[in-house]
Every structure is written in structure tokens, then in C-alpha cells.
Amino acid sequence: MLKKSLATCILLASFFSAFSQFDSASTPPPVTITGSVDVYYRYNFSNPKTEGVYNNYTSFTNSQSSFELGMASIQASHSFGKANAFADLGFGRRAQDFSYNDGVNNSFFSLSNVKQLYVSYAVTDKFKLTMGKWATHVGYELVDAYLNRNYSMDYMFSYGPFFHTGLKADVSLGGTSAFMVGIANPTDNSTTTSSTKYIIAQFSTGTKSGKLKGYLNFQGANWGSGGSTNQFDLVVTGAVSDKFSIGYNGTVSSSKPDGGDSKSWWGSALYFNVDPSSKVGLTLRGEYFDNKKGLLPIGEMPSSIFDLTFSTNFKVGNLTIIPEIRLDNSSEEIFEKADGSGTKSTVTGILAATYHF
């Protein structure tokens, strides 16, 4: 009897030991939490007096002589096996402007706080499916302020897509090349009643060293009424040395209404980045933006705009302080002086700070 009890105890101990090892191996890893905050002060030296006029036609800095809260972001990521989930919540005017179609326009106010939310599954090590809402692949600049060296945004970012909600597939082609293709709601819509869907795509490649990278991006749709929308976008980045790099972004967007003529806008920008030390970074952005066909609601008349932005990044750990000066020059008088008259040029100063964790 004692031998049987002892054998039973040994068997049970072995079973629980094996189960414990199995359970430990099956225990999901902890959730990864990251986040960021940004704040700024903006002053336009033309100092327009008309209510609601800030001499600002780009995203996220629509204020004058005011200390402003940009955005607080909290991101949670979790992977287990081949599956992954990601949630990115944003609070503040930057998040509200990013999800501008949500809230007042559709009564889904909580959706305006969801910057990104998606689940992914890696079918193989070279093929991954993702479904949900994610920041756009189009363009050079990003919604999170700490990921940009300039604090103010360019025109191409402001009038291109912000995000997509749909299903996409990422495919590795081996080496540094890959492509993405997907289907999504109309651009910048977290929810929609439209049956029209956009096709999105990207081809990316680069050198083995990673010093030169290129991204060819696309989004487009054919509307059931006979209209269409298409945008082609190119991003190239190159590291000349450890202290100097160059970025380029060029894009062209066209739209054809049903029974109407096709209209388009296009832009091109260069980014020169110099890092004298690990604590100081300098960036000069020059952009030409052509809206002469009047496709976009910029000012009261079609125009082309050249903007030149110089930003300094002072880095103290995860804190970055960004003093910035910006010149916007238009072919038409789309900006306003303090006396209410029009002007083609305006200068803006910004002092911003970002922190990420």
C-alpha cells in the first residue's frame, strides 16, 4: 500500500512538474507600454487680427500666441506566438485633428481618441496579415511629434492621408525588399457606410547597409458614380555619414468627379539633417507645394506655396526641445497682415518640447 501511495505521489509530482513546465512555456509575455507627450508655443509675426485666422494651412499648429497642448499618446503592444495586437490612444488637439472625421461628424466621439488599433497574424516569416486602423504609409512625416525633427508639418502631410482602416498584407521579398497591398475604407474614415473601398500599396527596398532606403506608395479608388481618386508618393532617405543625412518626399494626387475634369495637386520636399553631437540636431526642410488647380481649400484662390523651415533639436535623454523658425511664401496673397490686408509671405516661430517613454 505504501509503495502504491509512493508511486502515485511520484506520478502526480511528475505530472504537475510537466504541466508546470508546459504552462510556463505557454505563458504570454507581458504587455509593452510606451507613450509620448508634446507641447508648444506658436507665434505668427504677421499677427492677424481676424478671428479664426492664424496664417496656418498645415496640420496640428492652428493657434496664435498661445501655449498649447499637442497630444498625449499611450501605446500598448502584445505578441504571442504568431499573433500581435496594438492599441494607440491619443488625447489632445493633435489626436482630434488626426481623426477629424470622428466625433462631431459621426457621433462616435471615442473613435477620435483611437489613433491606431489593429491585430496582426504572421502566416509565415515572410507573410503577415493586419486588420484594423493604422497610420498611413504615404509620406515622410509622422503623426507623433517626437518622431519628426521639424515640429510644424508640411503641406504634403497635411493634405495627404492620415490613416487607413482595413485589411493589408505585408510580404517580404528577401533581403531589404518588401511590398504591402491592402483594401481600406475611404481615406481617414474609421467607420463608413460607403461601399467604395480604397486600394493601398507600397514597395520598399534599400541597400544592405541600410544607408539608402526607398518607398514607393499608392492609394486610390474608383467611385461607383464614375469618379476616381489616386495618389502616388515617393520617399527616399540617405545617410551620407553618421552626422549628415538627406530625406526626400515627392507626391502627386489627382481627383476626377463624375462627369467632370480631373484636377490634381503635387508637392516635393527635401530634408537636410545634421547632428553635430548626440545632444544637438539641426534640420532644414524646404517644400514646394502646387495647388494652382484649386483642388484643395487653401486660401481663397489657387496658389503654389514654398515653405522653408529650420528646426534645432536639443536632446536631454528622452526630452527634445525644438526651437523653430518657418517662412511660408505663396504665389497669391493667401496670408493676412495685422491690418487685415493680404500678403504673400509670413514668418512663424515655434518653441516645442516632446518626450517619449
Verbal overview:
- The protein is mostly beta strands.
- It has one domain: Porin, CATH 2.40.160.10.
- The chain has three helices and 18 strands.
- The protein has helices spanning 2-26, 93-98, 155-159; strands at residues 32-44, 66-80, 83-91, 114-124, 127-135, 163-172, 178-184, 198-206, 212-222, 228-239, 244-256, 263-277, 280-291, 303-316, 319-330, 335-336, 342-343, 345-356.
- The strands form two sheets. A 16-stranded antiparallel β-barrel has the order 1-2-3-4-5-6-7-8-9-10-11-12-13-14-15-18.
- The longest helix has 25 residues, at 2-26.
- The model is unreliable at 1-24 (pLDDT under 50).
- It comes from Panacibacter ginsenosidivorans.
- Pfam families: BBP2.
Summarize the structure.
The chain is mostly beta strands and 357 residues long. 10% of the residues lie in helices and 53% in strands.
Give descriptors for this structure.
357 residues; mainly beta; Porin; 16-stranded antiparallel β-barrel; two-stranded antiparallel ribbon; 18 strands; globular; disordered N terminus
Strand and helix layout:
Elements: H1 2-26, E1 32-44, E2 66-80, E3 83-91, H2 93-98, E4 114-124, E5 127-135, H3 155-159, E6 163-172, E7 178-184, E8 198-206, E9 212-222, E10 228-239, E11 244-256, E12 263-277, E13 280-291, E14 303-316, E15 319-330, E16 335-336, E17 342-343, E18 345-356
Antiparallel strand pairs: 1-2, 1-18, 2-3, 3-4, 4-5, 5-6, 6-7, 7-8, 8-9, 9-10, 10-11, 11-12, 12-13, 13-14, 14-15, 15-18, 16-17
